[in-house]
Amino acid sequence: MRRAIIPAAAALFVSLVPAPAALARPPVKVPVAEGYGGAVATVDLDASKAAISVLRRGGNAMDAAVAAGAVLGVTEPYSAGLAGGGFMVYYDARQRKVFTIDGRETAPRAMTSTSLEGIPFDEGVTSGLSAGVPGTVATWDVALRRFGTMSLGQALQPAIEVASKGFVVDQTFYDQTAANAARFKDISSTARLYLPNGAPPPVGSIFRNPELADTYRELGRRGPGWLYGGQLGKEIVATVKNPPVTPGSTRNVRPGLMELSDLRAYRALLREPTKISYNGMDVYGMAPPSSGGSTVGEALNILEALPRVGLHEYLEASRLAFADRGKYVGDIPGVPLEELLSDGFAKERACLVGDTALTSPVAPGSPDGSYEPCAEPTGTATPVAQEGPETTHLVVADRWGNVIAYNLTIESTGGNGIVVPGRGVLLNNELTDFTFGPAPGDPNLPGPGKRPRSSMAPTLVFDGGRPVLAAGSPGGSTIITTVLQILVNRYEFGMSLPEALAAPRATQRNTAQTQAEQAFLDKYRAELEAKGHSFVLNPEIGAATALEFLGRSRIQAVAEPTRRGGGSAMVVSPGR
């Protein structure tokens, strides 16, 4: 075993409790829980409670994940919702097999490689043009029919209750609303919902979304067809093509290209997972159009090819893997996935890692199946495209040994900022994950029916054929480095899983400077700058959730202790 180097030192949209004396204290979330019978970790207490309730009533991990995801659409509406998309990596204990579901949004058939060209990124976000064909509801439908025990209507009941009765506004919800207030006020339906009396709802107030409750209720009764070609779909298309801009607003809110036929054509897809062998374990992830599985996997392979692993090596492996991601990965035919994840390619890339930092952008390698002891890259580097920092991630395990890592998103914080009138649902801006161009040969240029490249990296780790760990995070392209660093912390540096999540983070994505949290800079900046690394502050990187099987049926669920307000870990039973 290689020696690891431990790092050195109209209708009523919202009901609020107005009197300050009546404001509620936001509920306390516990970031670590251990026990039996199943476990869950999400960013939100209501979502975790929903999942645990499902498990206690005899539902399985997939039932609980869908229930929790639907609740997050209520309590974390700026990160997830039924008009978004996502990816599931699921281990079915009965079949002893890992499955993945690709619920990534798609571009309308009218979108071309130049549809986003020349548009300022911010203007692209707040527009109908950025809205992809939603995949979340189709994901839930496939997941429950193939792997669950509950109907969609049953799985939506906890979310309906939370949307109807309301939840306590916390600091994170207030801050995210305030950060979006300028654009929310320019969309009449969004302003009515999220800016009551012209301002964000105060911390401690009760936020209700009865229109979303009705939307979920109707979806449960009518099924996914109500969205994919039915009345809800018609309303979404109408909103995309004619955004409800507030009278007098000067914001240029472009109309979108989505048609009802695009919704009818949408499918959530079962795909083969990515898989690598790492330190004797098997690591499963999400295949393209996600770049999470390929980039995390390649970086781990590079690290395994090195004689030692420290923070310098972690940053260099990530740098190299991101160079290859930009060149080769997208929703295109012929992604050289097998070669990107091969040991031969990893060794060829690992030979570039020395005692000093490489200069970014480094060029991509050649995953062509012909590998030399140390080949110099000859390709052209691709800049890291902008991605929204939001998204959310949850993990669930049940009493039968099923386990799921699930990323769901509407892309940027607040999606495209447009609420479907009368439905209480924010639309996504997922199509801004495409490269805007011009960029000849870029695998992530937009196209008709194409799925934008994602960085979501829901990940399962197996030892001896049995699941031992599940992890994932939000954070745009920092998702990949967050998951990678958690695995390095856990398996190279010997940290416990709670320590691995809480540790300060840095993210190197083939950029000239490495972004890092302040605590990371305080501890490691001097030693890493001595190796040629350059840093810039990123106040908060990721907001992970994870779980680990501790043996004898005991599970540890872990969420962030502080990032994004901290998360919520729960177990079915703390004792036997």
UniProtKB/TrEMBL annotation:
Gene3D superfamilies, sorted: 1.10.246.130, 3.60.20.40
Signal peptide range: 1-24
UniProtKB keywords: Hydrolase, Signal, Transferase, Zymogen
Listed InterPro entries: GGT_bact, GGT_lsub, GGT_ssub_C, Ntn_hydrolases_N
Any matching Pfam family: G_glu_transpept
Region: Disordered, residue numbers: 362-386
Single GO term (MF): transferase activity
Family according to the record: Belongs to the gamma-glutamyltransferase family.
Name this polypeptide is given: Gamma-glutamyltransferase
Organism: [Actinomadura] parvosata subsp. kistnae
